[in-house]
Design brief:
The complex is a heterodimer. By secondary structure, chain A is α+β, with helices and mostly antiparallel strands. In chain A, 34% of the residues lie in helices and 15% in strands. In chain A, helix 15 crosses helix 16. Chain B is mostly beta strands. Classes of the chains: A alpha+beta, B mainly beta. Chain A: It comes from Cladorrhinum samala.
Amino acid sequence: MPFRITTWNVNGIRNPFGYQPWRDKRTFKSMFETLEADIVVMQEVKIQRKDLKDDMVLVPGWDVYFSLPKHKKGYSGVAIYTSHSVCSPIRAEEGITGVLCPPNSSTKFRDLPADQQIGGYPQPGQLSDAVDEAALDSEGRCVILEFPAFVLIGVYSPAVRDDTRAEFRQAYIDAIDVRVRNLVAMGKQVFLCGDLNIIRSELDTAGAAEHLRKEGMTVEEYLSVPGRRFLNQIVFGGQVFGERDSGREEPMLWDLCREFHPNRAGMYTCWETRKNARPGNFGSRIDYVLCTSGIKEWFVDSNIQEGLMGSDHCPVYATMGDTVSHNGAQVHLLDLMNPVGMFKNGERQREWTTKDLLPTSAKLMPEFDRRRSIKDMFFKTPPVKPWPSSDLPQPTSDEPLTFKPIPPPPYLSPKPESTSASQTLSRLSTPASSNSTAASSPQKTSSSTSKRPAESAVASNRAQKKGKATLTRESSKSGAGGGQSTLKGFFKPKAAAAETDVKDTAKGSSQASSSETAQHSPNQGTSSSLVAGTDVESSSGANSKTESEANEKVHDPIAAKESWSTILGKRIVPRCEHGEDCQSLVVKKPGVNCGRSFFMCARPTGPSGGKERNTEFRCATFIWSSDWNGRP
Amino acid sequence: MLEARLGEAAEFKKVIDAIKDLVQDCNFDCNDSGVALQAMDNSHVALVAMLLKAESFEPFRCDRNIALGVNLTSLTKVLRAAQNDDILTLKAEDAPDVLNLVFESKANDRISEYDLKLMDIDQEHLGIPDTEYAATVTMSSAEFKRITTDLIAMSESVTIDVSKDGVKFSAQGDIGNGSINLRQHTDLEKSTNSVEIELSEPVALTFSLKYLVNFCKASALSTRVKICLSNEVPLLVEFGLSGTSYLRFYLAPKIGDEE
């Protein structure tokens, strides 16, 4: 079985569960099985200590180490999961500088006795004083595990969002550099992986040429940006311009993914979500698996898994073979990935126990420590199902119920098996045995509660009334709502009424008055003619009044209607070259146009990054919203 | 057909209130002996077992076994509409889609009626064996609640140590440690304050305080609480309800250090 280490910036530890193939099972165990990984390094878990849940800490067969931010909540965060069937670290630390303390201790990792520390901590003078070491490690960006074979550093290096964090980013990168070089100087092998937030070269990002042209940079300048310069100085084969920096004379790490795919273009691990850049593979490679020379030959494969969704990054892995050459001899890898004596020649000598948990393990957090499932302490019995009548709509009752007999736990041995069995039996048989009592009891209850049905009938009657009342209320409400929604319609009848009014006046009031008297007379009996007469007068007067009002207010009802519809109606969106509706966006970039909205093609960015002609990706359509009059 | 009427809604309200933070969805299993509920919490550390016996209701009728799959948060919302002294009636058909709840005010003719939609819940049933516990402590529920809330300020877990001298609750935490010792005594003036201990052998077990604090939400139901312990068996915390009905909580002890 090859041994795989996978690094993945998950952008929220539960985030992948929203996507296939993780969505179905939603467990970390099944996720790791799908990844076929033995060690999973996650970045940006974005979780607070208090929100850690059983399912993410107590993953059966897996141990986990977290580094979570001390102050900023639900930000950053690194986790390393290790499968203890194949590996078990001998030391574990949080933070890159060693200034943090193990749980329940006030001794810093770097101050622990030499045999308990991983070592390689930055010495005074190795780091600039720009950023305090405690501050560097306060953001939950690094977990370090040590195996007999090598030191595994899982890191989430700060991103370049804006200039305010440039100093922090630089200090963090320096700390990584110093720690790796110190560890190598101690004679240890290092495997550094994670989201470094650095693009190594122009081969590792889409649209590099255009970017350089826009910024007016040369390739040399591009590769000499501090972050990029660090990475190119520490990896073998990195392009370094000019003199190497002092302390960084030698490359230390192999860029495994690049080593296995030296010329592959478009090998990207991160795509901007906002630009929907993933379908067109307009991305960058900023997640790395790096290792020192001593273990480089152990690796048989390394690749990106761009097809796995769940985050704005994709997983990146490196795989080691079963046997590796160590100190000149062929050794089984498992012997070197576990404490001495646990494996010999790849055969397990000793079972993994909770005693092998390191103090930093999340499983030892008080709320998860020494947990025992109550399920193991009781027998399982078949659920008490409702009467097995076939007319029940529950699908579960139709399925044949199979129950595996579970042997009683040894600690229940003082209780003879038979009692528990008989108990379950009696439990099962209660429905049957109580048949006779059940038959009699309903009669009893019904006789003693002769009032009950009547009462309930009254209640239901009332309920019906209530129901009606609410119904009518609802309908009236919805009627009002309907009136609201057809504000446009409001103008139609008015316009029509105005028209009929005009007609009426043209035809003379006599017709109207006669029809009105005809309507009124049956109700009002003998005195109808007199009343009718006055009625006619008043109504016609009212008619003329409303007419004149209407004429004053609404000069042109059709024009009014149109002006309303331009305000209320759905705006017509321009079409792009694909003949599809454009998307409306707002300029976020500071500058003269900041805040202006515009239309552009809604398709994902193409591989070239820019606007493409006659391809399935984003076309060149661009229209300022203010220039768009709403008519194609 | 289920029809179960409780003279006062208060007890049912309190029961649901006490378990709703532990269990989200569960089946109420109704048969002619009463209404029973058994559910584990998400992490499978604690188990709730409730039995409202038929005699707690007046009247009670249940012709067939009915499983009512209820979301307890939703049920709590409906029960909030009931006054404590309202008469509460639970009703359901034989293969129900809804649970019907009727609250009748005793003071006036106000009758409110709610239908709660039911769910199909696939639930594991555990057979709880009758256990002879090595130690049984019966004490004031308010006192037990106070002990748990006091100690959770110190630590995540508590060790309960029952010996012939009495019962000791102790907690070691980051900021220090604390313990509470109770001796067996009989309070003649206020019998609810008595501490009774039945002991066949001394026991000391460690439990998560978070769960015990949670269980103590039921202390409003009963002035007395029974705490039963045995090695290698879950802790039982029992609150008596009216009649011989009960609300029981089981909690798996923490795995001992010696293992």
